[in-house]
Amino acid sequence: MLSEADIAALLLTLKVAGVATVLLLLFGTPIAWWLVRTPSRWKGVVNTLVALPLVLPPTVLGFYLLVLMGPNGPVGHLTTELGLGTLPFTFGGVIVASVLYSLPFVVQPLQTAFAAIGERPLEVAATLRAGPLDAFFSVVIPLTRHGFMTATVLGFAHTVGEFGVVLMVGGNIPDKTRVVSVQIYNHVEAMEYGQAHWLAACLLVFSFVVLLLLYGLNPMQGKR
Amino acid sequence: MLSQTMGRFLAVLAVLLASSNALAGQVLVAVASNFAKPMEEIAVEFKKATGHNAELSFGASGKFAAQIENGAPFQVFLSADEKKPEKLTASGFAVAGTRFTYALGTLVLWSAKPGYIDAEGKVLSAGGFKHLAIPDPKLAPYGVAALDVLKSMGLTERVQSLLVLGENISQAQQFISTGNAELGFIALSQVIKNGKIGEGSGWLIPTDKYAPIRQDAVLLKAGIDNPAAQALLDFLKSGKVLAIIEKYGYGLPKDKL
Question: What is the pTM of this model?
């Protein structure tokens, strides 16, 4: 019952969500760590900036990204100078938008997890002559793996379900920016409810299975 | 004593309410977003002429169709196309025999850059642009019309890979006005100011290059016993309204369905 375009949209969605989640963990981890450890007075400002995508309606965020990354926007100027062209209507543009949009969903669980382990394990690691990086990888990450798990699941799930930002920045191009949520929306708008139901069902079953596997394989009760 | 006064007061209030209801009705109207501006003006005139209030909701026609099929209380539907009112009539959610074209969409090739588009649209065949924005032809009749124009100019193949699709005409316009697409096909009603294309540059496309974009109105089941709903549909065909429709860059329906 799924058309070729539907399957292409499904695959593209997995690709977008996968790439975005990896980038989110790469950027989100140092941001969260810094936010927990820093005595800087900028902490409040950075915290607020990270949380902002929660407040802005997705189409509004999408519109500003369109303006910023467009040929007349500062980011657009920068990417053009770098020889990358402008980002809207490209896979890269969708990734940038998704990462910004899902950032609070990754940073906040990590922040909570980092804060929860306290000073003690790090002091112990230091007395055992572990450098800061060594301590982070061999002490902090194992102790906060439930936080990483939550961050990964939320980041991935939120990117899969994202709609407004991608619709705005993506330009609805098959195989490049037309993700499942946009495809479902198009089916509904065109009154093709049958196809919309099928695609939505696939998305639902897929998400259910992924979440079930993650939660099922990693019972978090009583563990850190 | 007090309750007697209260009772009298309530009786008077009831009479007042009843009489005001008889005089001034209310009609719930679902309006395609592209027709929002003219419709607001029409609602003001409608109130002046008949005393009825038209309560307007703006949104995408497809979303309205889905809501109407699922019990939304709209009484009149002004769609952005002819297909949705037709489907709603066939499925019994709209009243048969009440559908008519209230406005014709006018297509324009537009760019935010002044002087970019010439009077005959030669820029399309000349090339030199990276993105051509159109409303998604699957969702918006303006997108279908845009493809008609490209086809009539023999450019369909050449620009295929340059197309970016807006979910509706306003998104297509945002793609162009932010400069992300150099040019694109949108509705004249989006860029008209005092009877001309206001900003940037544009080509008003000759109407023989695309099939007419009919925007149809229809009476919905929920409005069948509401005189205000019928009054609004009649009012939409009046001379005063036609002048407003034309002012906002739409064509007038010459032939009735």
Answer: 0.78
Using a CB-CB distance cutoff of 8 angstroms, which residues of chain B are in contact with residue A70?
Answer: 178-180
Contacts of B87 in chain A (CB under 8 A): 191
Q: Does B60 touch chain A (CB under 8 A)?
A: yes
- The predicted complex's ipTM stands at 0.71
The answer to whether the Cβ–Cβ distance between B175 and A171 falls below 8 Å is yes
- For chain B, the DSSP string reads -HHHHHHHHHHHHHHHHHHHHHHS-EEEEEEEGGGHHHHHHHHHHHHHHH--EEEEEEE-HHHHHHHHHTT---SEEE-SSSHHHHHHHHTTSB-TT--EEEEEE-EEEEESSTTSS-TT-THHHH---S-EEEE-TTT-HHHHHHHHHHHHTT-HHHHGGGEEEESSHHHHHHHHHTTSSSEEEEEHHHHEETTEE-SSEEEE--GGGS--EEEEEEEBGGGTT-HHHHHHHHHTTSHHHHHHHHHTTPBP--S--
- Please tell me which of the candidates A71, A173, A193 has its beta carbon nearest to residue B179: A71
We find that the CATH architecture of domain B2-104+214-247 is 3-Layer(aba) Sandwich (3.40)
Of A66, A173, A190, the CB nearest to B139: A190
Kindly list the averaged pLDDT for each block of 10 residues, start to end, along chain B of length 257: 62 55 80 90 96 91 88 93 95 96 95 93 92 92 95 94 91 93 94 88 94 95 95 95 94 68
| Cβ–Cβ below 8 Å for B175 and A188 | no
- CATH annotation of A4-217: 1.10.3720.10
